[in-house]
Specification:
The complex is a heterodimer.
Chain A lengths: L6 H4 L3 H6 L5 E3 L2 E3 L3 H25 L13 H26 L7 H4 L1 H10 L13 H25 L6 H32 L5 H4 L2 E3 H7 L1 H8 L3
Antiparallel strand pairs in A: 1-2, 2-3
Chain B lengths: L7 E4 L16 E6 L8 H9 L26 E9 L2 E9 L8 H5 L6 E4 L4 E3 L9 H5 L6 E3 L4 E3 L5 H4 L6 H5 L5 E5 H16 L7 E3 L9 E5 L19 H32 L9 H4 L5
Parallel strand pairs in B: 2-11
Antiparallel strand pairs in B: 1-5, 2-9, 3-4, 5-6, 7-8, 10-11
Classes of the chains: A mainly alpha, B alpha+beta.
Chain lengths: ~230, ~300
Protein backbone atom coordinates (compact mmCIF):
# COMPACT_ATOMS: atom_id res chain seq x y z
CA UNK A 1 0.00 0.00 0.00
CA UNK A 2 1.55 3.26 -1.05
CA UNK A 3 1.88 6.29 1.14
CA UNK A 4 -0.53 8.23 -1.06
CA UNK A 5 -3.45 5.88 -0.46
CA UNK A 6 -6.40 7.88 0.93
CA UNK A 7 -6.97 7.51 4.64
CA UNK A 8 -10.36 5.81 4.29
CA UNK A 9 -8.73 3.05 2.26
CA UNK A 10 -5.90 2.65 4.71
CA UNK A 11 -8.52 2.09 7.38
CA UNK A 12 -9.52 -1.01 5.40
CA UNK A 13 -5.98 -2.38 5.69
CA UNK A 14 -6.79 -5.87 6.98
CA UNK A 15 -3.59 -6.35 9.00
CA UNK A 16 -3.97 -3.00 10.74
CA UNK A 17 -7.61 -3.68 11.55
CA UNK A 18 -6.73 -7.11 12.86
CA UNK A 19 -3.89 -5.60 14.92
CA UNK A 20 -6.26 -3.36 16.85
CA UNK A 21 -7.17 -6.12 19.25
CA UNK A 22 -5.51 -9.36 18.14
CA UNK A 23 -1.95 -10.52 17.78
CA UNK A 24 -0.11 -13.70 16.75
CA UNK A 25 -2.32 -14.04 13.66
CA UNK A 26 -1.27 -14.14 10.03
CA UNK A 27 -2.92 -11.73 7.59
CA UNK A 28 -1.75 -12.26 4.02
CA UNK A 29 1.99 -11.90 3.94
CA UNK A 30 2.10 -10.35 7.38
CA UNK A 31 1.80 -11.54 10.93
CA UNK A 32 0.41 -9.26 13.64
CA UNK A 33 3.09 -9.25 16.35
CA UNK A 34 1.89 -6.56 18.75
CA UNK A 35 -1.74 -5.52 19.07
CA UNK A 36 -2.58 -1.86 19.56
CA UNK A 37 -2.69 -2.09 23.38
CA UNK A 38 0.82 -3.60 23.52
CA UNK A 39 2.17 -0.88 21.25
CA UNK A 40 0.55 1.93 23.24
CA UNK A 41 1.96 0.54 26.48
CA UNK A 42 5.42 0.22 24.93
CA UNK A 43 5.41 3.79 23.63
CA UNK A 44 4.08 5.24 26.87
CA UNK A 45 7.10 3.65 28.58
CA UNK A 46 9.38 5.01 25.85
CA UNK A 47 8.03 8.57 25.97
CA UNK A 48 8.14 8.80 29.77
CA UNK A 49 11.61 7.22 29.72
CA UNK A 50 13.00 9.85 27.37
CA UNK A 51 11.27 12.67 29.25
CA UNK A 52 12.95 11.36 32.42
CA UNK A 53 16.28 10.87 30.65
CA UNK A 54 16.50 14.32 29.08
CA UNK A 55 15.33 16.09 32.24
CA UNK A 56 17.67 13.98 34.41
CA UNK A 57 20.89 14.16 32.39
CA UNK A 58 21.43 17.91 32.97
CA UNK A 59 21.10 17.29 36.73
CA UNK A 60 23.56 14.40 36.46
CA UNK A 61 26.36 16.33 34.80
CA UNK A 62 26.82 19.84 33.38
CA UNK A 63 28.06 18.20 30.14
CA UNK A 64 24.37 17.70 29.34
CA UNK A 65 23.35 21.02 30.89
CA UNK A 66 22.09 22.27 27.51
CA UNK A 67 19.29 19.68 27.64
CA UNK A 68 17.68 21.64 30.49
CA UNK A 69 16.86 24.33 27.92
CA UNK A 70 14.41 21.89 26.28
CA UNK A 71 12.23 22.11 29.36
CA UNK A 72 12.85 25.72 30.42
CA UNK A 73 15.80 25.38 32.74
CA UNK A 74 17.22 23.23 35.48
CA UNK A 75 14.63 24.29 38.08
CA UNK A 76 11.92 22.89 35.80
CA UNK A 77 13.93 19.68 35.39
CA UNK A 78 14.09 19.32 39.17
CA UNK A 79 10.32 18.76 39.44
CA UNK A 80 9.60 17.53 35.91
CA UNK A 81 12.17 14.73 36.27
CA UNK A 82 10.43 13.47 39.39
CA UNK A 83 6.96 13.46 37.81
CA UNK A 84 8.19 12.04 34.51
CA UNK A 85 10.00 9.37 36.49
CA UNK A 86 6.82 8.53 38.37
CA UNK A 87 4.89 8.28 35.10
CA UNK A 88 7.68 6.05 33.74
CA UNK A 89 7.38 3.77 36.76
CA UNK A 90 3.60 3.50 36.36
CA UNK A 91 3.94 2.78 32.63
CA UNK A 92 6.67 0.22 33.34
CA UNK A 93 4.47 -1.48 35.92
CA UNK A 94 1.61 -1.75 33.42
CA UNK A 95 4.05 -3.07 30.81
CA UNK A 96 5.46 -5.63 33.24
CA UNK A 97 2.08 -7.19 34.02
CA UNK A 98 0.98 -6.90 30.38
CA UNK A 99 3.88 -9.05 29.18
CA UNK A 100 5.04 -11.11 32.15
CA UNK A 101 2.87 -14.06 31.15
CA UNK A 102 4.72 -14.35 27.83
CA UNK A 103 8.13 -13.93 29.43
CA UNK A 104 8.43 -17.22 31.32
CA UNK A 105 11.96 -18.42 30.64
CA UNK A 106 12.78 -21.95 29.57
CA UNK A 107 16.04 -23.59 30.60
CA UNK A 108 17.40 -22.97 27.11
CA UNK A 109 16.53 -19.28 27.27
CA UNK A 110 18.19 -18.94 30.66
CA UNK A 111 21.43 -20.06 29.02
CA UNK A 112 21.34 -16.78 27.06
CA UNK A 113 23.04 -15.24 30.08
CA UNK A 114 26.53 -16.02 28.86
CA UNK A 115 28.11 -17.14 25.57
CA UNK A 116 24.77 -17.65 23.83
CA UNK A 117 24.09 -13.92 23.87
CA UNK A 118 27.34 -13.36 21.99
CA UNK A 119 26.53 -16.11 19.49
CA UNK A 120 23.28 -14.27 18.84
CA UNK A 121 25.09 -10.96 18.41
CA UNK A 122 27.48 -12.62 15.93
CA UNK A 123 24.42 -13.93 14.05
CA UNK A 124 25.73 -17.47 14.60
CA UNK A 125 23.17 -18.85 17.01
CA UNK A 126 20.76 -21.66 16.21
CA UNK A 127 17.41 -19.90 16.33
CA UNK A 128 15.19 -22.65 14.97
CA UNK A 129 13.52 -23.06 18.37
CA UNK A 130 13.05 -19.36 19.19
CA UNK A 131 9.49 -18.54 20.24
CA UNK A 132 7.79 -15.13 20.14
CA UNK A 133 10.54 -13.70 22.34
CA UNK A 134 14.12 -14.93 22.46
CA UNK A 135 16.17 -15.33 25.62
CA UNK A 136 17.84 -11.96 25.19
CA UNK A 137 14.50 -10.18 24.91
CA UNK A 138 13.23 -11.89 28.03
CA UNK A 139 16.37 -10.97 29.96
CA UNK A 140 15.97 -7.38 28.79
CA UNK A 141 12.34 -7.46 29.94
CA UNK A 142 13.29 -8.45 33.49
CA UNK A 143 16.28 -6.09 33.51
CA UNK A 144 14.02 -3.19 32.58
CA UNK A 145 11.48 -4.16 35.24
CA UNK A 146 14.16 -4.42 37.91
CA UNK A 147 15.73 -1.18 36.70
CA UNK A 148 12.43 0.69 36.93
CA UNK A 149 12.03 -0.58 40.49
CA UNK A 150 15.55 0.54 41.44
CA UNK A 151 14.99 3.96 39.88
CA UNK A 152 11.68 4.35 41.72
CA UNK A 153 13.00 3.39 45.15
CA UNK A 154 16.10 5.60 44.88
CA UNK A 155 14.17 8.31 43.05
CA UNK A 156 11.66 8.76 45.85
CA UNK A 157 14.53 9.38 48.28
CA UNK A 158 16.10 11.93 45.90
CA UNK A 159 12.72 13.60 45.38
CA UNK A 160 12.28 14.21 49.14
CA UNK A 161 15.88 14.02 50.36
CA UNK A 162 15.37 15.85 53.62
CA UNK A 163 12.94 13.24 54.89
CA UNK A 164 15.57 10.52 54.83
CA UNK A 165 18.72 10.00 56.90
CA UNK A 166 22.14 10.82 55.46
CA UNK A 167 23.22 7.24 54.71
CA UNK A 168 19.96 6.48 52.88
CA UNK A 169 20.40 9.60 50.73
CA UNK A 170 23.97 8.63 49.80
CA UNK A 171 22.95 5.07 48.93
CA UNK A 172 20.01 6.39 46.90
CA UNK A 173 22.31 8.60 44.81
CA UNK A 174 24.59 5.63 44.09
CA UNK A 175 21.69 3.24 43.32
CA UNK A 176 20.01 5.79 41.04
CA UNK A 177 23.31 6.32 39.20
CA UNK A 178 24.22 2.66 38.73
CA UNK A 179 20.69 1.69 37.67
CA UNK A 180 20.36 4.53 35.21
CA UNK A 181 23.76 3.85 33.62
CA UNK A 182 22.92 0.16 33.10
CA UNK A 183 19.47 1.14 31.84
CA UNK A 184 20.81 3.56 29.25
CA UNK A 185 23.41 1.06 28.03
CA UNK A 186 20.66 -1.55 27.62
CA UNK A 187 18.37 0.92 25.83
CA UNK A 188 21.11 1.85 23.36
CA UNK A 189 21.35 -1.81 22.30
CA UNK A 190 17.56 -2.26 22.42
CA UNK A 191 17.09 0.60 19.95
CA UNK A 192 20.01 -0.47 17.77
CA UNK A 193 18.80 -4.08 17.46
CA UNK A 194 15.24 -2.99 16.77
CA UNK A 195 16.22 -0.60 13.98
CA UNK A 196 19.56 -0.73 12.16
CA UNK A 197 20.68 -4.26 13.06
CA UNK A 198 17.48 -6.13 12.29
CA UNK A 199 15.44 -4.48 9.53
CA UNK A 200 11.74 -5.20 9.63
CA UNK A 201 11.61 -5.21 13.43
CA UNK A 202 10.57 -1.61 14.02
CA UNK A 203 7.27 -2.09 12.19
CA UNK A 204 6.21 -4.53 14.91
CA UNK A 205 5.96 -1.55 17.25
CA UNK A 206 4.44 0.95 14.80
CA UNK A 207 2.16 -0.84 12.31
CA UNK A 208 2.10 -3.83 14.64
CA UNK A 209 3.09 -6.34 12.00
CA UNK A 210 6.12 -8.21 10.69
CA UNK A 211 6.53 -10.12 7.45
CA UNK A 212 6.35 -13.91 7.34
CA UNK A 213 9.98 -13.98 6.19
CA UNK A 214 11.03 -11.88 9.18
CA UNK A 215 9.19 -14.14 11.58
CA UNK A 216 10.71 -17.28 10.01
CA UNK A 217 14.19 -15.80 10.37
CA UNK A 218 14.05 -14.37 13.86
CA UNK A 219 11.34 -16.35 15.65
CA UNK A 220 11.03 -19.69 13.84
CA UNK A 221 8.98 -21.53 16.48
CA UNK A 222 6.58 -18.60 16.87
CA UNK A 223 6.19 -18.56 13.05
CA UNK A 224 5.32 -22.27 13.05
CA UNK A 225 2.88 -21.83 15.93
CA UNK A 226 1.08 -18.93 14.24
CA UNK A 227 0.94 -20.30 10.70
CA UNK A 228 0.77 -24.02 11.42
CA UNK A 229 3.54 -24.57 8.86
CA UNK A 230 6.28 -27.06 9.54
CA UNK B 1 40.70 44.26 56.19
CA UNK B 2 41.10 45.75 52.79
CA UNK B 3 38.19 45.71 50.40
CA UNK B 4 37.72 42.20 49.10
CA UNK B 5 36.82 41.55 45.55
CA UNK B 6 34.38 38.79 44.77
CA UNK B 7 36.30 36.85 42.19
CA UNK B 8 34.97 33.29 42.13
CA UNK B 9 37.50 30.55 42.82
CA UNK B 10 35.15 27.61 42.44
CA UNK B 11 31.61 27.14 41.21
CA UNK B 12 29.31 24.16 41.55
CA UNK B 13 28.65 21.89 38.55
CA UNK B 14 30.91 23.96 36.33
CA UNK B 15 33.47 22.56 33.96
CA UNK B 16 35.30 25.82 33.72
CA UNK B 17 36.13 28.35 36.38
CA UNK B 18 38.90 29.39 38.67
CA UNK B 19 40.78 32.51 39.46
CA UNK B 20 42.29 34.96 37.03
CA UNK B 21 45.50 34.76 39.04
CA UNK B 22 46.00 38.51 38.76
CA UNK B 23 45.27 39.28 42.37
CA UNK B 24 46.51 37.45 45.39
CA UNK B 25 43.82 37.68 48.02
CA UNK B 26 44.12 36.39 51.55
CA UNK B 27 41.68 33.75 52.78
CA UNK B 28 39.43 35.30 55.43
CA UNK B 29 38.51 33.51 58.61
CA UNK B 30 36.41 33.82 61.69
CA UNK B 31 37.82 32.70 65.03
CA UNK B 32 35.41 31.49 67.71
CA UNK B 33 36.85 31.14 71.19
CA UNK B 34 34.28 28.91 72.88
CA UNK B 35 36.07 29.30 76.21
CA UNK B 36 35.06 32.95 76.43
CA UNK B 37 31.58 32.57 74.94
CA UNK B 38 28.89 33.34 77.54
CA UNK B 39 25.93 32.17 75.42
CA UNK B 40 24.32 35.62 75.26
CA UNK B 41 23.14 35.05 71.66
CA UNK B 42 23.94 38.62 70.60
CA UNK B 43 25.48 37.05 67.46
CA UNK B 44 22.18 35.30 66.68
CA UNK B 45 20.30 38.59 66.85
CA UNK B 46 22.92 40.46 64.85
CA UNK B 47 22.79 37.77 62.16
CA UNK B 48 19.00 37.92 61.94
CA UNK B 49 19.04 41.72 61.77
CA UNK B 50 21.84 42.21 59.27
CA UNK B 51 20.62 39.47 56.92
CA UNK B 52 17.02 40.60 57.33
CA UNK B 53 15.86 37.10 58.28
CA UNK B 54 12.36 36.65 59.60
CA UNK B 55 12.00 35.23 63.09
CA UNK B 56 11.40 31.54 63.44
CA UNK B 57 8.83 30.42 66.03
CA UNK B 58 10.59 28.88 69.01
CA UNK B 59 9.42 26.24 71.46
CA UNK B 60 10.30 26.40 75.14
CA UNK B 61 11.46 22.91 75.92
CA UNK B 62 13.47 23.76 78.98
CA UNK B 63 16.91 24.55 77.57
CA UNK B 64 18.74 27.66 76.47
CA UNK B 65 19.10 26.84 72.82
CA UNK B 66 16.98 29.00 70.50
CA UNK B 67 16.23 26.23 67.97
CA UNK B 68 16.99 22.53 67.74
CA UNK B 69 18.94 23.11 64.56
CA UNK B 70 19.80 25.71 61.95
CA UNK B 71 17.02 26.88 59.64
CA UNK B 72 16.79 28.53 56.24
CA UNK B 73 15.89 31.69 58.21
CA UNK B 74 18.28 31.13 61.10
CA UNK B 75 21.95 30.86 60.12
CA UNK B 76 23.74 31.30 63.43
CA UNK B 77 22.80 29.07 66.35
CA UNK B 78 24.53 28.86 69.70
CA UNK B 79 24.36 25.24 70.75
CA UNK B 80 24.49 24.34 74.43
CA UNK B 81 25.81 21.10 75.85
CA UNK B 82 26.54 19.81 79.34
CA UNK B 83 29.34 17.43 80.34
CA UNK B 84 30.59 16.05 83.62
CA UNK B 85 34.36 16.46 83.69
CA UNK B 86 36.36 15.33 86.76
CA UNK B 87 33.25 15.42 88.93
CA UNK B 88 32.29 18.93 87.90
CA UNK B 89 29.73 20.15 85.41
CA UNK B 90 30.95 21.90 82.28
CA UNK B 91 28.48 24.04 80.38
CA UNK B 92 29.80 24.01 76.84
CA UNK B 93 28.70 26.18 73.96
CA UNK B 94 29.56 26.43 70.34
CA UNK B 95 28.51 28.62 67.47
CA UNK B 96 26.81 26.45 64.85
CA UNK B 97 26.97 27.99 61.39
CA UNK B 98 28.45 27.37 57.95
CA UNK B 99 32.11 26.44 58.44
CA UNK B 100 33.15 27.75 54.99
CA UNK B 101 35.25 24.66 54.24
CA UNK B 102 38.22 24.97 51.93
CA UNK B 103 36.87 21.86 50.18
CA UNK B 104 33.11 22.33 50.50
CA UNK B 105 31.01 19.17 50.30
CA UNK B 106 27.92 21.25 49.44
CA UNK B 107 29.65 22.70 46.38
CA UNK B 108 30.87 19.28 45.28
CA UNK B 109 27.40 17.72 45.60
CA UNK B 110 25.48 20.60 43.97
CA UNK B 111 24.23 19.82 40.43
CA UNK B 112 23.21 23.38 39.50
CA UNK B 113 25.93 25.42 37.78
CA UNK B 114 26.88 28.41 39.90
CA UNK B 115 24.33 27.74 42.66
CA UNK B 116 27.15 27.37 45.19
CA UNK B 117 30.32 29.37 44.77
CA UNK B 118 33.55 29.78 46.67
CA UNK B 119 34.98 33.28 46.40
CA UNK B 120 38.67 33.99 46.14
CA UNK B 121 38.68 34.93 49.82
CA UNK B 122 37.38 31.47 50.78
CA UNK B 123 33.77 32.38 51.56
CA UNK B 124 31.27 29.74 50.39
CA UNK B 125 27.97 31.21 49.27
CA UNK B 126 24.62 30.03 47.88
CA UNK B 127 23.29 31.85 44.83
CA UNK B 128 19.48 31.58 45.08
CA UNK B 129 18.98 32.49 41.41
CA UNK B 130 20.73 29.30 40.33
CA UNK B 131 19.60 27.05 43.20
CA UNK B 132 17.07 24.40 42.16
CA UNK B 133 16.28 23.30 45.71
CA UNK B 134 17.28 19.66 45.21
CA UNK B 135 18.86 19.34 48.67
CA UNK B 136 22.05 17.63 47.46
CA UNK B 137 24.13 20.25 49.33
CA UNK B 138 22.64 19.05 52.58
CA UNK B 139 23.73 15.52 51.71
CA UNK B 140 27.21 16.81 50.85
CA UNK B 141 27.67 18.90 54.01
CA UNK B 142 29.40 17.11 56.91
CA UNK B 143 28.13 19.77 59.34
CA UNK B 144 24.41 19.62 58.37
CA UNK B 145 24.34 23.34 57.63
CA UNK B 146 22.44 24.22 54.41
CA UNK B 147 18.70 24.29 55.04
CA UNK B 148 15.79 24.13 52.65
CA UNK B 149 13.34 27.01 52.63
CA UNK B 150 9.96 25.41 51.93
CA UNK B 151 8.16 28.50 50.65
CA UNK B 152 10.87 29.59 48.19
CA UNK B 153 12.24 26.14 47.31
CA UNK B 154 15.80 27.42 47.81
CA UNK B 155 18.60 26.46 50.15
CA UNK B 156 20.01 29.05 52.53
CA UNK B 157 22.90 29.32 54.99
CA UNK B 158 25.44 31.72 56.52
CA UNK B 159 27.22 33.86 53.92
CA UNK B 160 29.97 34.94 56.34
CA UNK B 161 28.37 38.34 55.67
CA UNK B 162 30.04 38.41 52.27
CA UNK B 163 28.24 41.68 51.55
CA UNK B 164 29.90 43.28 54.58
CA UNK B 165 33.27 41.62 54.08
CA UNK B 166 33.44 42.71 50.43
CA UNK B 167 33.29 46.35 51.53
CA UNK B 168 35.81 45.92 54.31
CA UNK B 169 33.51 45.35 57.27
CA UNK B 170 33.61 42.45 59.69
CA UNK B 171 30.64 40.02 59.81
CA UNK B 172 27.64 41.16 61.86
CA UNK B 173 28.12 38.49 64.56
CA UNK B 174 31.71 39.63 65.17
CA UNK B 175 30.54 43.21 65.51
CA UNK B 176 27.91 42.23 68.10
CA UNK B 177 29.95 39.92 70.36
CA UNK B 178 30.29 41.58 73.79
CA UNK B 179 33.04 39.35 75.23
CA UNK B 180 35.41 39.49 72.29
CA UNK B 181 35.26 35.75 71.79
CA UNK B 182 34.68 36.31 68.05
CA UNK B 183 37.46 37.57 65.80
CA UNK B 184 37.75 38.15 62.09
CA UNK B 185 40.76 38.53 59.81
CA UNK B 186 43.02 36.61 57.47
CA UNK B 187 43.18 32.89 58.09
CA UNK B 188 46.88 33.22 58.90
CA UNK B 189 46.19 35.83 61.57
CA UNK B 190 43.28 33.88 63.03
CA UNK B 191 45.36 30.69 63.29
CA UNK B 192 48.10 32.53 65.14
CA UNK B 193 45.54 34.24 67.42
CA UNK B 194 43.78 30.91 68.03
CA UNK B 195 47.02 29.06 68.77
CA UNK B 196 47.97 31.79 71.26
CA UNK B 197 44.69 31.31 73.06
CA UNK B 198 45.16 27.51 73.02
CA UNK B 199 48.56 27.92 74.72
CA UNK B 200 46.97 30.16 77.35
CA UNK B 201 44.28 27.53 78.02
CA UNK B 202 46.87 24.76 78.26
CA UNK B 203 48.74 26.70 80.95
CA UNK B 204 45.50 27.27 82.83
CA UNK B 205 44.20 23.80 83.44
CA UNK B 206 43.00 22.71 80.00
CA UNK B 207 45.89 20.53 78.78
CA UNK B 208 43.92 19.19 75.83
CA UNK B 209 42.84 22.57 74.44
CA UNK B 210 43.04 22.73 70.64
CA UNK B 211 42.19 24.79 67.60
CA UNK B 212 39.47 23.09 65.51
CA UNK B 213 40.44 23.41 61.83
CA UNK B 214 39.56 19.96 60.46
CA UNK B 215 41.85 18.74 57.70
CA UNK B 216 39.26 16.34 56.24
CA UNK B 217 37.55 19.27 54.53
CA UNK B 218 40.82 21.07 53.75
CA UNK B 219 40.48 23.23 56.84
CA UNK B 220 37.62 25.60 57.57
CA UNK B 221 37.07 29.32 57.25
CA UNK B 222 35.55 29.23 60.72
CA UNK B 223 38.13 28.26 63.35
CA UNK B 224 37.07 27.21 66.81
CA UNK B 225 39.10 27.18 70.03
CA UNK B 226 37.97 24.22 72.12
CA UNK B 227 39.04 23.94 75.78
CA UNK B 228 38.46 20.19 75.50
CA UNK B 229 40.06 19.84 72.10
CA UNK B 230 40.35 16.06 72.36
CA UNK B 231 36.55 15.84 72.60
CA UNK B 232 34.98 18.00 69.88
CA UNK B 233 31.87 15.78 70.13
CA UNK B 234 31.26 17.21 73.63
CA UNK B 235 30.36 20.46 71.93
CA UNK B 236 26.87 19.45 70.72
CA UNK B 237 28.22 16.74 68.45
CA UNK B 238 30.86 18.74 66.58
CA UNK B 239 32.28 16.07 64.23
CA UNK B 240 35.72 14.78 65.19
CA UNK B 241 36.91 14.13 61.65
CA UNK B 242 34.51 15.68 59.13
CA UNK B 243 34.95 14.94 55.45
CA UNK B 244 32.90 15.15 52.27
CA UNK B 245 30.69 12.04 52.46
CA UNK B 246 32.17 9.00 50.73
CA UNK B 247 28.96 8.45 48.74
CA UNK B 248 29.14 11.95 47.24
CA UNK B 249 32.85 11.65 46.35
CA UNK B 250 32.39 8.17 44.85
CA UNK B 251 29.40 9.36 42.84
CA UNK B 252 31.04 12.46 41.38
CA UNK B 253 34.61 11.26 40.94
CA UNK B 254 34.27 7.59 40.05
CA UNK B 255 30.73 6.57 39.14
CA UNK B 256 29.99 9.54 36.88
CA UNK B 257 33.09 9.20 34.66
CA UNK B 258 32.52 5.43 34.48
CA UNK B 259 28.90 6.06 33.48
CA UNK B 260 29.84 8.54 30.77
CA UNK B 261 32.37 6.09 29.35
CA UNK B 262 29.87 3.21 29.55
CA UNK B 263 27.14 5.13 27.71
CA UNK B 264 29.53 6.42 25.06
CA UNK B 265 30.94 2.89 24.82
CA UNK B 266 27.48 1.45 24.20
CA UNK B 267 26.90 3.87 21.32
CA UNK B 268 30.35 3.18 19.84
CA UNK B 269 29.78 -0.55 20.40
CA UNK B 270 26.50 -0.45 18.47
CA UNK B 271 28.18 1.28 15.53
CA UNK B 272 31.12 -1.13 15.74
CA UNK B 273 28.74 -4.08 15.68
CA UNK B 274 27.03 -2.70 12.59
CA UNK B 275 30.29 -2.23 10.72
CA UNK B 276 31.57 -5.64 11.78
CA UNK B 277 28.50 -7.84 11.48
CA UNK B 278 26.11 -5.75 9.42
CA UNK B 279 22.38 -6.34 9.32
CA UNK B 280 20.55 -9.55 10.01
CA UNK B 281 17.87 -9.82 7.34
CA UNK B 282 16.09 -12.26 5.13
CA UNK B 283 18.54 -13.67 2.59
CA UNK B 284 17.86 -13.01 -1.06
CA UNK B 285 14.70 -11.01 -0.50
CA UNK B 286 14.28 -7.35 0.32
CA UNK B 287 11.43 -8.46 2.52
CA UNK B 288 10.29 -5.05 3.62
CA UNK B 289 9.37 -4.16 0.05
CA UNK B 290 8.13 -7.30 -1.65
CA UNK B 291 6.33 -8.98 1.19
CA UNK B 292 3.99 -6.17 2.14
CA UNK B 293 0.37 -6.87 1.26
CA UNK B 294 -0.62 -5.74 -2.19
CA UNK B 295 -3.44 -3.29 -2.66
Amino acid sequence: MSATTPLRDRAMDAAVVMGRDRENVAVGNEIVRHRLASRLIHWSVAVTFFASLFSGLPIWTPIFGWMATLFGGLSVCRWLHAWAGLAFTVASLVMFFHWVGEMVMTADEKSWIGPKLFEYLRYQGDESQVGKYNGGQKIFFYTAGLGALGLLVSGVVLWFPLRFPQIVRELAILLHDVTFILFVVSIVFHIYLATAAEPGTFGAMTRGTVTRAWAKLHHARWYRDVTGEK
Amino acid sequence: MSVQNLEIARSSASLIGGLSGIRSLPTVSKLIDTSTCIGCKACEVACQEWNDLKSVATVNDGDYQTLKQLDAQFWNLIRFDEREVDGGLKWLMRKDQCMHCAEPGCLEACPAPGAIVQYANGIVDVNPEQCIGCGYCETGCPFDVPKFHASTGKMAKCTLCVDRVSVGLEPACIKACPTGCLHFGTKEDMISLGNGRVEQLKQNGFPTAALYDPKGVGGTGVLTVLAFGDHPEWYAALPRDPHVPLGVRFWKNILRPIGLIAIAGAVVGAFGHYFNFGKKEVKGAADAETNLPQG
